[in-house]
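Here we describe the complex-level prediction in full. Unlike the single-chain runs in Section 2.1, the two entities below were treated as one system.
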Amino acid sequence: MTAITVDDERPMLKMLTAAVSASPDIAFVWEFHTCSAALEWAAENVMDIAFLDVSMRGMGGLALAERLLEIRPECKIIFCTGHMEYAVDAFRLHVSGYLMKPITAEAVQKEIDYIEKKKEKLLTVRCFGNFEVYRGRAPLLFKRSKSKELLAFLVDRNGAGVTTKEICARLWEMSTDDTRNMNYFYQLLNDLSYALKAVNAESILIRANRTYAVDTERIDCDYYNYLKSGNPKFRSEYMTQYSWAEETCGKLLRDL
Amino acid sequence: MQKETELTDSYTKIMMSQIQQHFICNTLGTIEQLCMEQPEIASRLVHDFSLYLRGNFREMNSNVPIPLSQEIEHVRHYVAIEQIRFPDMTIRFELHSEEFLLPALTIQPLVENAIRHGLMALESGGTILVSTYETDTYYYVSVADDGVGFETPLPVDGKSHIGLPNIEWRLKRMCGGTLTMESTPGRGTRALIRIPKEEIQV
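The structure predicted for the assembly as a whole is:
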């Protein structure tokens, strides 16, 4: 998961960020000391949790939470404060949690565990047979079949990060040295983001520093379920429309 | 005797409103957070905080004017505490006149108001200028900020600004001085203390 921390007091911000990054569930933390910097960032980026100080200068934490939820309705908000009297306002906003200062890594972890438990699956993915993606019962619409293939490749990597270079080489035998190829790749990536955004599932795509991955926790996937529990049964067919998927298919067959 | 009791009472009052619960809690919270990561800054903060509290307790029972330097010292401790929390605020001192007396806890609450109501409404930054100067007949202390400002006259709700009537009253009783506030919304606020050089007997 990814998180942002916002507090206008520098020492508090530093400690909050330290407590949040101590959690093994948090992959990246971005910290901000003004509300507007956080909003600006959130307009372009996706995060799973926002840890917000309540009594901040400018618009303040409550208004910031409201604005963040407008642009990122899936984001979980956790308020941090030294003063209990703000609690009522916070719960009116349906925030996910509440931390009293001083903030400890244990208290942060407790809130994260609570969110994890409630985490709903955003996508249903079928890997056995043909690769298909659904939101509920409706299949996802991709402008290009290659964008769907990109998602399939990330699902196949089971949450591990893949670089642009690797994706281009393995999927389409393209070199990333060519600018035209890179532009094509970004087009596919945009199409994928767009398709995910259309069903409010964009947060399953994790990106950092030209590396891409899917958040496996938020995908209901037959392949992942099979790896965990042996169910549903594997009938020797795995992402049949993609040749690169034979590698995983072979491994699954050997392990049968 | 009556007058003395009144003055002492008014100190107690300003002191109570000034050392607000939030200020103490915030400062202690900041110290706690700093102890682990930045112990040197934590120790500096404890130093300023204890001197700030000591200053407040000392002035609580005094009812004679104190030297400007002593009040400025008190302001500097207060400002040091706020600046650890908000390093992006700028507070400048330009003391062109230093050899005069004024009631204790006059400049400090004005600076506190400038931070709470002027700068804190901004998202970040802001500047406060504390300056002193004199003419043939008066000493002046000015506390000016470039914060949000407000519509004058000042809305009187007793809570929003710390003890302005109290400061005014003590200035008048102890040294025949006055306090005036002027503010432009969006531009800032300036509090001006004027103290006559020839003490006016009240």
